[in-house]
Each structure stands twice: as structure tokens, then as C-alpha cells.
Design a protein that fits this description.
Elements lengths: L3 H36 L5 H7 L4 H17 L1 H11 L1 H17 L7 H15 L2 H10 L4 H12 L1 H18 L8 H23 L12 H18 L14 H21 L2 H9 L5 H28 L2 H19 L5 H29 L2 H15 L2 H16 L4 H21 L9
Length: 435
Amino acid sequence: MKEKMPLAHSQLANVIRKVQFRLLPLIVSMFALSMLDRSNVGFVKHYLEVDAGISASAYALGAGIFFIGYALFEVPSNLLLHKVGARIWLSRIMVTWGLVSVAMIFVHDPMSFYILRFLLGAAEAGFSPGVILFLTYWFPKAYRGQAYGWYYLGVPIALMLGGPFSGWLLDSSYSFGFTNWQWMFIVQGALTVLVGIIAFFVLVSKPDQAKWLTQPEKQLLNQALAKDRSIQNQTENSNNQRVFTDWRVWRFVFIYFTIQMSVYGVLFYLPSKLADLLNIHVGLTVGYYSAIPWICTVVLLPVITRIADKKANWNNMAILMLLCAVVGIGLSTQTTHIFQFMLMISLAVVGFIIVQPLFWNLPTQYLSGRAAAVGTALIGSIGNLGGFVAPNLKNWADQKWDNDIAGLTVLAIVGFSGVISLFLLKREHHIGWLR
């Protein structure tokens, strides 16, 4: 018996590597385009102010209103994915939001900006929690942290490459009656549509449908997944009817909300902040500088998630990473020197990106089946409203105290409340998987 266990574990590890190779590159590309299409508005803030007469407060509202549309359609979108399968639904989501992203060229006043940002959020609703749910169909919990880690590599890859790419598009000269910022939306939206079409032919919804797995490999993977489900089904939350009234699920919602506050409080304003510090316009040079924090994240994310999986200490590592984000955001407000700012903002970015795959290990080990579809969508939809609150709260705080550091300071305080919530979650010993 003792000799067979390592062999079975080795065989399962080989199957997992095959699944990673087949699925994760495309999943990472899809998420990278998701982040690019929702955040590229940060590169055109100045252009929208000039060409469309959009004020700072209108920009904050429009940047954040994306998450209202996202939240409203998140839960039904995830339920449909659970019903019709990831191949069809994730592909449909990508094609739809790519087309809406292209339609951003029609922004000409604040109202058109609000409407298109809302529609972009509605079109993308269900994508991220849908992928989180999709990965639970393929990866047992012992390997899920790494899978989420690879998935979240889409964020730094998008912004590491997307920053210079967006800057290059804005610095280049085009014609056909469109401005440079309109071409940015056309090119990046068209790429999203193309990848969405590819996903329809490449993605496989569940292991039993994978022609590239042998029957013994499918059986081994399904046995590992079934073992996880048997443990999850012992929790009272296996019934999705109790998801909306379970206080632990709402704790997850609050923690994810604070994380998203940190993310989008920085993301929507980083290009313009760098331009101010460098005393230049937003273009290719700003794109290069904005790539630095994401390069650091690309290097560290797979390392830290692998360590967390090996030690099964997702909660502890999540606390550490969110604390790094809080400290980095707070200290970035205290410097006007570009080197020091890049150091602090890199610490913040590494923290608030890596905390996310670590965080998702917690609710997905607690929820199962249909409850997982509802629960991950609920956490994702309401938690992502932090992306709506963050730019508006930052803009309000900056105006109230008449400086540009008050908003980030407030967001750092909100992030620290998330650290405290993760710490309290860790102390609840009666949830067996929290260690």
C-alpha cells in the first residue's frame, strides 16, 4: 500500500501537467485580454478629457460603472456556464465583450462613455468566476492554487505587454477617420473576438469530453476530483439555497471587495500618475514604466502559489500578500521620486495580484456543485463592485482633502480591513481546511 501511493500520486501529477499544457495557455490569454479591455481606459483618460469633454469625476464614474453591469449579470451567467458548459459560454462572453470594446470608439460625451462601460461590464459578466468554476472541474484542490496562479498570470502579462502596446498605439499615426485612442480600442477589441472564436474550438468543458486524455487518465483525474467533492459535500453549504444566507460566504465577499478596491484604485490611475512624475504625456515611455510592476508579478506569482500549495497555507500567504499591497499603496503616496514610487507600487501590484489566486482557494474548497457556481459568482459580482467604488472614492477623497494622495491613503485603509478579515477567517478552526 505504501509503495502504490507515491506511484498514484506521480501518475496524477503527470495527468495534471497534461491538463495544464492543454488548457492554461489559452485561459491565460483570455484573462489577459479581459484585463486589457477593462483597464485600457486608464491610458486614454487625458484623450477622453480633450476629445469627449469628460471630467475627472465623469471619468471615475465611467471607469467604475463597468462593475455595475458586471455585478448585475454575474450570477445568471455563471449558472448558464454550469448548465451549457465552458466551451460555449466562455467563448460567447469573449466575442461579445470584444465587440463592445470596439464600440468604445463611439464615445463622444459622458453619457456615451457611461453606457458603453456599463455594456462592457454586462458583456464580460461571468467570465472570471466562470473560469474559477471551470478550473474546479479539472484541478483537485492540491493543484488548484497553482492553476489559479497560472490563470492570474493573465493580469501581469496583459499589463506588462499591454502597457507598451497601448502606448505604442497612442504614439503611432493612423488614418481612415479614427484617432489614435479609437484605434487602440479597435485593435484590442478585435484581438478579443479572435481569441474567443479560437476558444470555441479548443476549450473542453469537463475531463470526460477530452479526446487528448486516455480513459485511465480520465478515471484517475475524476477519482481525485470526486474525493474533493465528497469532503465538500459534508459542509452545510453544499446546498446552494443556503449560499445567500451563509455569513461565511459574505465574509468572502467582503474580503474580495477590499482586494478589488486595491486593484482598481491603482490600475485606473497608474498611467496618468507616471506621466505626472515623468512630466511627459501618456505614450510609449509611460507604457514601459507601467510594465515594471507586472514583470515583478510574472516572476513571483507562480513561485508563491506553488509554495502555498505545497504547504497548504493559502490563508497565511493571502494575508501576507494583501498586507504587501496595503503597505505598497500607502508608501507610494509619500514619495514624488520615480524610483521610490516604482518600488512601492511594484510591491503593491505584486501583493494585490498574487493574493487573488490564493484567496480563491478558500471559497472553492468550501463550496461544491451548483452551490459553487452560485457562490463564486456572488463573491465575484459583489466583490468586483470594489472596482466601481475605488475610482469614485479616490476621486472624492482627493477633492475633499485637495491633494492626490488622500484617495490612495483611504484605499490602503480599506485594504487593511481585508487583512484583518483574512486573519479572523484563519482563526475559525471549525472550518477544517483553514489552516
